[in-house]
Amino acid sequence: MPPTILPTAATTAKNGIFVKEVRIRHYRCLRSVDVELDALTLLIGQNNSGKTSFLNALFAAIGAGQRGLSSDDVFIRTNEVAAPKNRTVAIDILVRPTDANGNIVNVFAQGSPWLELWGSGIVQDENDNDLAAIRTLYKWNAVKGEYALERRFLKDWQKDSTKWENSKPVEKVAPVSSQQLEPLALYLLDAKRDIAEDLRSRSSFWSKMVEEHGLTPADVDRIEKELTTINKDIVDSSGIFTYIQGHLRNFHETLSCDQQSIAINPQSPCTPSSRSVSGHGRCTLHPWSAAVFAEPARHGHT
Q1: Least buried of 51, 67, 73, 113, by fewest C-beta within 10 Å?
Q2: How far apart, in whole angstroms, are the C-alpha atoms of residue 113 and residue 119?
Q3: CB of 117 within 8 A of CB of 79?
Q4: Bridge-based pairing state of the strands 262-265 and 291-294
Q5: All residues at 6 or more sequence positions from 241 whose CB lies less than 8 Å from its CB, including other chains
Q6: Any idea what DSSP says for residue 145?
Q7: Residues 6 or more apart in contact with residue 186 via CB below 8 angstroms
Q8: With contact defined as beta carbons under 8 Å apart, do 257 and 234 qualify?
Q9: pLDDT for the residue 235
Q10: Among candidates 79, 81, 63, 51, which has minimal Cα distance to 149?
Q11: Where does residue 227 rank: exposed (0-12), middle (13-18), buried (19+ CB within 10 A)?
Q12: Can you give the pLDDT at residue 294?
């Protein structure tokens, strides 16, 4: 089984940060797990040993567009039918500052954007070393009758992980906001399971990266015209595509788009060139190896 590679450092112009340790309690199959991270961390284990659960827990805590937790994520013992309501999922993350070379240092540099971003969320340990500890809790709210999620900065980090509950939130500091997590955000991609889906999804991190292609409007216009010419040549040269194209013209009423805007793009839907370079919204279908694009009508969206 291939190992999972987990990067743990993020950098800024003046200061970097390093996710040094992760503590997880009562998340899925992970009842109590403490993992100290290095510059490169490999998670190796048998199937269903908790590797994916560890990554999902980390993603639930600091992931980009964090996935929501549900009651199904609460740890259940083998002799239990359901998790008791007083059982809380806790994911603690220890963050330390680094220098320009990625080495852990004792203090955040003066003027570091992390100081401005996290403010009083940055605290000191018993040796006056700077740190930020972020706790994600998923616990039952008896008043609302449902589970609730909260993220708080902690005022310390217990060296003894068995005393993790002794670490309390920093007083008079608001819950951690999405804006405070965004620069830290973890992007999780399972190379075996999710890569095809991420490459197709316009909302994924990878799609957003390739959308910033750096081409000028003139380049975009020229390339799209050339692609249109190539696609038309392919369709006109194929009796099958020509036949399908003729019948697709009748779909314009169902798709609420102009009749002439429906066209076959006979390129693999997994290739970047099968999408509009300029990123305009389109209705997309993928019959076999042909991608069908329908431009939205002017009065609405498809």
Answers
A1: 67
A2: 10
A3: no
A4: antiparallel
A5: 234, 235, 264, 266, 290
A6: T
A7: 58, 59, 62, 63, 64
A8: no
A9: 82
A10: 63
A11: middle
A12: 40
**Sheet of 283-285, strand order:** 262-265, 291-294, 283-285
For tokens 């799209």, the residue is 224
Question: Which DSSP string do the residues of 157-196 spell out, in sequence order?
Answer: --SSGGGGGG--BPTT-PPPPHHHHGGG-B----TTTTHH
Residue 199: CB atoms within 10 A of its CB come to 16
String of DSSP letters for 82-109: S--TT--EEEEEEEEEE-TTS-B-SSPP
Q: Give per-residue burial for 273-285: e unless 16+ CB within 10 Å, then b.
A: ebbbbeeeebbbe
Answer for the pair 264, 231: CB distance below 8 angstroms, yes or no.
Answer: yes
Tell me how far apart the alpha carbons of residues 276 and 131 are, in angstroms, rounded to a whole number: 45
Q: Is the alpha carbon torsion for 217, 221, 222, 223 positive or negative?
A: positive
* Amino acid at site 260: Q
Tokens 């998670």: give the residue: 43
Q: What are phi and psi of 240, to 5 degrees?
A: -65, -50
Q: Which long-range contacts (CB under 8 A, 24 or more apart) does 27-33 make?
A: 27/53, 27/56, 27/57, 27/60, 27/73, 27/74, 27/75, 27/89, 27/91, 28/53, 28/56, 28/57, 28/73, 28/75, 29/53, 29/75, 30/54, 30/57, 30/75, 31/75
Cα–Cα distance for residue pair 297/302, rounded to 1 Å? 8
Residue 7: per-residue pLDDT:
46
Q: Which domains does the chain have, with CATH numbers?
A: 4-188 (3.40.50), 208-294 (no CATH)
Q: Which two tokens stand for residue 126?
A: 């018993």
H or E element that contains 217:
helix 217-237
Average pLDDT, 10 consecutive residues per value, the chain (302 residues): 50 75 97 94 90 92 80 94 94 95 92 93 96 97 93 97 96 93 82 61 66 81 86 84 75 58 54 41 36 40 37
